[in-house]
Task: inverse folding
């Protein structure tokens, strides 16, 4: 790299950090100038916003399973809070998902969280129902992951929940892949975790007969492309964020994140190319979808200019490191397996003791004297979705009651989504809660991602 280039990048970085530190909003045009990227305003004029630099605030993110979607969700939730937006949240009987795997219905949305700007909790996609619920300028986004890695992740994560996996002797993925039909029952509960999970989440047919699967998958991919303005790809997460940020006209500091809901390295297993081929054959529709949207992502990245994308990815990582330093003094809090995290607000849900999900723990003494406790925005960045959803429902309900005192008392007397159990669940705090609370609230259907 020439000295001149390095110099320009240095200037860009220091300018951006100056702007960030002063809390000013990055001016897209100015930023594009420094990044040497084409201006993104031209592509967004069709969205009907008030001005070229207004941030887009109506977003439907279809949260898929085991795809890094919890991290995207966390970005969206924090954006919503910062901008006083309303996030559609599930009624309590739906748990923290919108009654997944049932197809989404607007009836699953808690009345205190309407009309929404953003929706991001797990749901099975239904275009019609979402259109009924969301503003008509809503931008639809989702994320896909390479089918081999994704299926391995599903197999491990849901090993003790999904009957199709439970039947496999010794919990061996190879054994399952030898004769999937010996273990898989299409109509069974939780079967959607065992075949074409992405297709299912998108509202498609996971069990198309092999003879039609290919044609169906192509049709389905084209249909999804008309609905979703951006399909992110987990393998190119930061690159996908560059596109997301431009699509929504958001600032760089709106998309900073730390990875959430990961497994420890030793609960992942590496796959042979033979296994990957079998996984792709078994999940044929998902595989077509993935290849289709991965190609589409790279077409968009090339159109933007790969050098520009690369520079923005670097900027994103530097800004994130800076935020983490300012939040936690130096580096991220230690990653611990969920079972060892003392702060319940930060403990991710674990599907079984055999899968080590890791989360971030704050050492107790970090919140004691002599240490500035991490700011709220910092805690939220490492907060798992179940706890974050509960906090948001609480604050949105308060806001709703303030805004519509009469309407909310009517709702209460009619009992719409507002049962006694629901009231109990609306008592969150940042203090550690007894672990039974956690255990009770996580029973039932499955949750979380990656
Ligand atoms: C840049 O931002 C400033 C205010 O922050 C605004 O007045 C100006 O119009 C913006 N420039 C462009 C070209 O959008
Ligand atoms: C959000 O609401 C709070 C309290 O009503 C207000 O102080 C703040 O300025 C609002 N922020 C935005 C971005 O609208
Ligand atoms: C969006 O909805 C508003 C009112 O809700 C309506 O006036 C407008 O025409 C709609 N726009 C489109 C493109 O349907
Ligand atoms: C299961 O594992 C045991 C011990 O590792 C082995 O002896 C047995 O053959 C395995 N069963 C199958 C069906 O692979
Ligand atoms: C995604 O597409 C790019 C560009 O075509 C290709 O280089 C890459 O190998 C693909 N990634 C995967 C995981 O298939
Ligand atoms: C916080 O507590 C841990 C373990 O209890 C200890 O190792 C560490 O030194 C303490 N840190 C500070 C700053 O007191």
Result:
């Amino acid at each position: 790299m020439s000295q001149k280039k390095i110099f320009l990048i240095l200037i860009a970085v220091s300018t951006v950090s100056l702007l960030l530190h002063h809390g000013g909003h990055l001016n897209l045009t100015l930023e594009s100038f420094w990044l040497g990227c084409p201006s993104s305003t031209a592509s967004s004029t069709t969205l009907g916003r008030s001005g070229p630099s207004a941030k887009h605030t109506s977003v439907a993110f279809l949260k898929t399973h085991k795809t890094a979607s919890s991290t995207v969700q966390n970005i969206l939730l924090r954006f919503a809070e910062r901008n006083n937006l309303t996030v559609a949240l599930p009624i309590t009987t739906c748990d923290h998902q919108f009654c997944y795997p049932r197809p989404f219905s607007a009836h699953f949305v808690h009345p205190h969280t309407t009309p929404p700007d953003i929706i991001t909790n797990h749901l099975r996609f239904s275009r019609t129902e979402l259109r009924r619920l969301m503003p008509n300028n809503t931008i639809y986004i989702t994320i896909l992951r390479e089918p081999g890695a994704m299926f391995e992740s599903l197999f491990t994560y849901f090993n003790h929940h999904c009957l199709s996996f439970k039947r496999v002797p010794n919990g061996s993925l190879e054994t399952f892949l030898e004769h999937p039909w010996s273990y898989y029952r299409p109509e069974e509960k939780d079967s959607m975790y065992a075949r074409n999970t992405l297709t299912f989440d998108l509202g498609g047919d996971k069990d198309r007969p092999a003879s039609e699967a290919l044609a169906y998958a192509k049709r389905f991919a084209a249909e999804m492309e008309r609905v979703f303005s951006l399909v992110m790809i987990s393998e190119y997460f930061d690159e996908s964020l560059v596109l997301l940020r431009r699509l929504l006209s958001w600032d760089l500091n709106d998309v900073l994140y730390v990875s959430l809901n990961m497994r420890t390295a030793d609960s992942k297993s590496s796959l042979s190319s033979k296994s990957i081929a079998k996984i792709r054959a078994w999940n044929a529709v998902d595989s077509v979808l993935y290849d289709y949207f991965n190609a589409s992502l790279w077409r968009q990245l090339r159109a933007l200019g790969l050098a520009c994308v690369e520079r923005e990815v670097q900027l994103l990582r530097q800004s994130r490191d800076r935020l983490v330093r300012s939040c936690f003094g130096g580096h991220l809090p230690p990653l611990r397996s969920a079972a060892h995290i003392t702060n319940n607000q930060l403990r991710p849900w674990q599907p079984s003791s055999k899968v080590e999900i890791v989360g971030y723990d704050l050492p107790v003494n970090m919140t004691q004297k002599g240490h500035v406790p991490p700011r709220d925005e910092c805690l939220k960045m490492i907060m798992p979705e179940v706890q974050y959803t509960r906090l948001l429902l609480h604050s949105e309900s308060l806001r709703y009651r303030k805004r519509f005192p009469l309407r909310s008392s009517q709702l209460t007397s009619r009992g719409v989504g507002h049962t006694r159990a629901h009231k109990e669940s609306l008592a969150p705090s940042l203090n550690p809660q007894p672990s039974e609370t956690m255990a009770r609230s996580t029973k039932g259907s499955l949750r979380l991602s990656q």
In short: Residues 54-449 form one domain. Residues 363, 365 surround 2-acetamido-2-deoxy-beta-D-glucopyranose (ligand 6) (CB under 6 Å). The beta strands are 59-62, 87-88, 118-119, 139-144, 230-233, 262-263, 335-337, 357-360. The radius of gyration is 22 Å.
